[in-house]
Design goal:
This protein is an all-alpha fold and 234 residues long. The chain has one domain: Up-down Bundle (Four Helix Bundle (Hemerythrin (Met), subunit A)), CATH 1.20.120. 76% of the residues lie in helices and 2% in strands. It contains nine helices and two strands. It has helices at residues 3-27, 31-54, 60-90, 99-113, 126-138, 147-165, 180-204, 208-211, 213-233; strands at 121-122, 169-170. A two-stranded antiparallel sheet has the order 1-2. Helix 2 (31-54) runs antiparallel to helix 5 (126-138), helix 5 crosses helix 9 (213-233) and helix 7 (180-204) runs antiparallel to helix 9 (213-233). The longest helix has 31 residues, at 60-90.
Length: 234
Protein backbone atom coordinates (compact mmCIF):
# COMPACT_ATOMS: atom_id res chain seq x y z
CA UNK A 1 0.00 0.00 0.00
CA UNK A 2 1.27 3.49 -0.90
CA UNK A 3 1.67 5.29 2.43
CA UNK A 4 1.48 8.66 0.68
CA UNK A 5 -2.10 7.94 -0.37
CA UNK A 6 -3.14 7.25 3.21
CA UNK A 7 -2.53 10.85 4.31
CA UNK A 8 -5.00 12.59 1.92
CA UNK A 9 -7.62 9.87 2.51
CA UNK A 10 -7.19 10.22 6.28
CA UNK A 11 -7.72 13.98 6.02
CA UNK A 12 -10.83 13.39 3.88
CA UNK A 13 -12.11 10.95 6.49
CA UNK A 14 -11.71 13.69 9.12
CA UNK A 15 -13.94 15.86 6.93
CA UNK A 16 -16.56 13.09 6.86
CA UNK A 17 -16.29 12.64 10.63
CA UNK A 18 -16.82 16.38 11.19
CA UNK A 19 -19.91 16.26 8.98
CA UNK A 20 -21.31 13.26 10.85
CA UNK A 21 -20.82 15.03 14.19
CA UNK A 22 -22.49 18.15 12.75
CA UNK A 23 -25.55 16.09 11.74
CA UNK A 24 -25.80 14.66 15.27
CA UNK A 25 -25.40 18.10 16.89
CA UNK A 26 -28.13 19.48 14.62
CA UNK A 27 -30.57 16.85 15.87
CA UNK A 28 -29.73 17.95 19.43
CA UNK A 29 -30.42 21.61 18.64
CA UNK A 30 -26.75 22.58 19.08
CA UNK A 31 -26.73 24.55 15.85
CA UNK A 32 -23.73 26.77 16.59
CA UNK A 33 -21.55 23.76 17.38
CA UNK A 34 -22.89 21.98 14.30
CA UNK A 35 -21.76 24.95 12.22
CA UNK A 36 -18.33 24.92 13.88
CA UNK A 37 -17.90 21.27 12.83
CA UNK A 38 -18.99 22.14 9.28
CA UNK A 39 -16.26 24.81 9.24
CA UNK A 40 -13.79 22.23 10.56
CA UNK A 41 -14.88 19.92 7.74
CA UNK A 42 -14.21 22.74 5.25
CA UNK A 43 -10.70 23.06 6.73
CA UNK A 44 -10.02 19.36 6.15
CA UNK A 45 -11.64 19.53 2.69
CA UNK A 46 -9.14 22.19 1.66
CA UNK A 47 -6.11 20.31 2.92
CA UNK A 48 -6.97 16.85 1.57
CA UNK A 49 -6.68 18.03 -2.03
CA UNK A 50 -3.65 20.17 -1.21
CA UNK A 51 -1.87 17.26 0.47
CA UNK A 52 -2.65 14.96 -2.46
CA UNK A 53 -1.06 17.46 -4.87
CA UNK A 54 1.98 18.09 -2.66
CA UNK A 55 2.59 14.38 -2.11
CA UNK A 56 1.78 13.64 -5.77
CA UNK A 57 -0.60 10.94 -4.57
CA UNK A 58 -3.96 11.48 -6.28
CA UNK A 59 -6.19 8.42 -6.50
CA UNK A 60 -9.60 7.56 -8.01
CA UNK A 61 -10.72 6.29 -4.60
CA UNK A 62 -9.68 9.58 -3.02
CA UNK A 63 -11.83 11.53 -5.48
CA UNK A 64 -14.89 9.41 -4.72
CA UNK A 65 -14.26 9.51 -0.97
CA UNK A 66 -13.97 13.29 -1.13
CA UNK A 67 -17.38 13.61 -2.77
CA UNK A 68 -18.99 11.26 -0.26
CA UNK A 69 -17.50 13.23 2.63
CA UNK A 70 -18.57 16.54 1.08
CA UNK A 71 -22.17 15.41 0.70
CA UNK A 72 -22.31 14.58 4.41
CA UNK A 73 -20.55 17.72 5.63
CA UNK A 74 -21.84 20.26 3.10
CA UNK A 75 -25.06 18.57 1.97
CA UNK A 76 -26.73 16.56 4.71
CA UNK A 77 -25.40 18.54 7.70
CA UNK A 78 -26.72 22.01 6.65
CA UNK A 79 -29.96 20.43 5.40
CA UNK A 80 -30.44 18.70 8.76
CA UNK A 81 -29.61 21.94 10.56
CA UNK A 82 -32.29 23.80 8.63
CA UNK A 83 -34.84 21.00 9.15
CA UNK A 84 -34.29 20.89 12.92
CA UNK A 85 -34.18 24.69 13.08
CA UNK A 86 -37.55 25.13 11.36
CA UNK A 87 -39.40 22.08 12.64
CA UNK A 88 -40.71 23.79 15.82
CA UNK A 89 -42.48 26.29 13.54
CA UNK A 90 -43.33 24.32 10.40
CA UNK A 91 -43.67 20.79 11.77
CA UNK A 92 -43.04 18.07 9.20
CA UNK A 93 -43.20 20.62 6.37
CA UNK A 94 -39.65 21.41 7.39
CA UNK A 95 -38.63 18.14 5.70
CA UNK A 96 -38.54 20.17 2.48
CA UNK A 97 -35.18 21.46 3.71
CA UNK A 98 -33.66 18.00 3.24
CA UNK A 99 -33.90 18.45 -0.54
CA UNK A 100 -30.61 20.34 -0.19
CA UNK A 101 -28.82 17.09 0.62
CA UNK A 102 -30.09 15.48 -2.60
CA UNK A 103 -29.25 18.49 -4.78
CA UNK A 104 -25.82 18.74 -3.14
CA UNK A 105 -25.15 15.11 -4.08
CA UNK A 106 -26.19 15.87 -7.66
CA UNK A 107 -23.94 18.92 -7.76
CA UNK A 108 -20.94 16.90 -6.48
CA UNK A 109 -21.55 14.11 -9.00
CA UNK A 110 -21.69 16.65 -11.83
CA UNK A 111 -18.49 18.28 -10.58
CA UNK A 112 -16.61 14.98 -10.81
CA UNK A 113 -17.40 14.54 -14.51
CA UNK A 114 -17.45 18.19 -15.65
CA UNK A 115 -14.16 19.10 -17.35
CA UNK A 116 -15.02 22.82 -17.19
CA UNK A 117 -14.61 23.05 -13.41
CA UNK A 118 -10.89 22.60 -12.89
CA UNK A 119 -10.19 26.25 -12.00
CA UNK A 120 -13.65 27.69 -11.34
CA UNK A 121 -17.17 26.48 -10.64
CA UNK A 122 -20.34 26.05 -12.64
CA UNK A 123 -23.01 26.41 -9.99
CA UNK A 124 -22.59 27.27 -6.33
CA UNK A 125 -20.03 25.09 -4.54
CA UNK A 126 -21.43 22.94 -1.72
CA UNK A 127 -19.09 24.35 1.00
CA UNK A 128 -20.31 27.88 0.19
CA UNK A 129 -23.93 26.75 0.44
CA UNK A 130 -23.23 25.02 3.76
CA UNK A 131 -21.58 28.12 5.22
CA UNK A 132 -24.56 30.23 4.15
CA UNK A 133 -27.04 28.01 5.99
CA UNK A 134 -24.76 27.36 8.94
CA UNK A 135 -24.64 31.09 9.66
CA UNK A 136 -28.42 31.42 9.49
CA UNK A 137 -29.16 28.43 11.69
CA UNK A 138 -26.61 29.60 14.28
CA UNK A 139 -28.86 32.56 15.10
CA UNK A 140 -31.41 32.13 17.93
CA UNK A 141 -34.74 30.83 16.63
CA UNK A 142 -36.34 33.90 18.23
CA UNK A 143 -35.11 35.99 15.28
CA UNK A 144 -37.95 34.43 13.28
CA UNK A 145 -40.51 36.82 14.73
CA UNK A 146 -43.28 35.63 12.38
CA UNK A 147 -44.08 32.15 11.09
CA UNK A 148 -44.01 33.35 7.49
CA UNK A 149 -40.28 34.03 7.90
CA UNK A 150 -39.74 30.27 8.26
CA UNK A 151 -41.49 29.75 4.92
CA UNK A 152 -39.20 32.38 3.39
CA UNK A 153 -36.21 30.30 4.50
CA UNK A 154 -37.77 27.21 2.91
CA UNK A 155 -38.14 29.21 -0.31
CA UNK A 156 -34.50 30.32 -0.12
CA UNK A 157 -33.45 26.71 0.45
CA UNK A 158 -35.18 25.75 -2.81
CA UNK A 159 -33.38 28.63 -4.52
CA UNK A 160 -30.05 27.32 -3.19
CA UNK A 161 -30.93 23.88 -4.62
CA UNK A 162 -31.23 25.57 -8.00
CA UNK A 163 -28.00 27.57 -7.61
CA UNK A 164 -26.04 24.43 -6.73
CA UNK A 165 -26.76 23.00 -10.17
CA UNK A 166 -27.33 26.12 -12.26
CA UNK A 167 -25.25 26.79 -15.38
CA UNK A 168 -23.88 29.94 -13.76
CA UNK A 169 -20.10 30.51 -13.51
CA UNK A 170 -18.68 31.18 -10.02
CA UNK A 171 -15.09 32.32 -9.57
CA UNK A 172 -12.64 30.57 -7.26
CA UNK A 173 -9.34 31.69 -5.75
CA UNK A 174 -7.56 29.51 -8.32
CA UNK A 175 -8.36 32.19 -10.91
CA UNK A 176 -6.83 35.02 -8.84
CA UNK A 177 -4.44 36.17 -11.58
CA UNK A 178 -7.19 36.28 -14.19
CA UNK A 179 -9.87 37.85 -11.96
CA UNK A 180 -7.70 39.75 -9.52
CA UNK A 181 -9.92 42.85 -9.31
CA UNK A 182 -13.09 40.84 -8.71
CA UNK A 183 -11.57 38.66 -6.02
CA UNK A 184 -10.01 41.65 -4.21
CA UNK A 185 -13.43 43.35 -4.29
CA UNK A 186 -14.97 40.20 -2.84
CA UNK A 187 -12.39 40.00 -0.03
CA UNK A 188 -12.83 43.69 0.78
CA UNK A 189 -16.59 43.20 1.06
CA UNK A 190 -16.03 40.17 3.30
CA UNK A 191 -13.86 42.22 5.66
CA UNK A 192 -16.60 44.83 5.97
CA UNK A 193 -19.24 42.16 6.64
CA UNK A 194 -17.02 40.38 9.16
CA UNK A 195 -16.25 43.63 11.00
CA UNK A 196 -19.93 44.59 11.16
CA UNK A 197 -21.02 41.16 12.45
CA UNK A 198 -18.27 41.05 15.09
CA UNK A 199 -19.27 44.52 16.26
CA UNK A 200 -22.90 43.39 16.54
CA UNK A 201 -21.80 40.28 18.45
CA UNK A 202 -19.88 42.41 20.95
CA UNK A 203 -22.67 44.96 21.33
CA UNK A 204 -25.38 42.36 21.91
CA UNK A 205 -23.11 39.83 23.64
CA UNK A 206 -24.20 37.08 21.26
CA UNK A 207 -21.35 35.23 19.56
CA UNK A 208 -23.86 33.86 17.03
CA UNK A 209 -23.84 37.20 15.21
CA UNK A 210 -20.13 36.79 14.47
CA UNK A 211 -20.80 33.42 12.79
CA UNK A 212 -23.60 35.02 10.77
CA UNK A 213 -20.83 36.81 8.86
CA UNK A 214 -20.44 33.56 6.90
CA UNK A 215 -23.97 33.98 5.56
CA UNK A 216 -23.29 37.60 4.64
CA UNK A 217 -20.05 36.74 2.83
CA UNK A 218 -21.66 33.96 0.79
CA UNK A 219 -24.60 36.23 -0.07
CA UNK A 220 -22.08 38.81 -1.30
CA UNK A 221 -20.26 36.09 -3.25
CA UNK A 222 -23.46 34.95 -4.98
CA UNK A 223 -24.55 38.52 -5.73
CA UNK A 224 -21.17 39.42 -7.21
CA UNK A 225 -21.12 36.33 -9.44
CA UNK A 226 -24.68 36.91 -10.66
CA UNK A 227 -23.76 40.50 -11.54
CA UNK A 228 -20.68 39.30 -13.43
CA UNK A 229 -22.77 36.70 -15.27
CA UNK A 230 -25.23 39.39 -16.35
CA UNK A 231 -22.42 41.70 -17.52
CA UNK A 232 -20.74 38.92 -19.54
CA UNK A 233 -24.07 37.90 -21.07
CA UNK A 234 -24.80 41.43 -22.24
Amino acid sequence: MNCKRIIPDAITSCNLLCGSIAVFLATQGAFLWAFIFILAGAFFDFFDGLSARLLKAPSPIGIQLDSLADDITFGLAPAMMLFCYLRPILGWWALIALLMAAFSALRLAKFNVDERQHDSFIGLATPANAIFWGGICSLPISVLTYDWMAWVLIGVSLLSCYLLNAEIPFFSFKTFKKEKTVIISFLAGCLIILGYCIAKAIMHQHIEFAFFSGTGCILWYVTLNLLLACVKKN
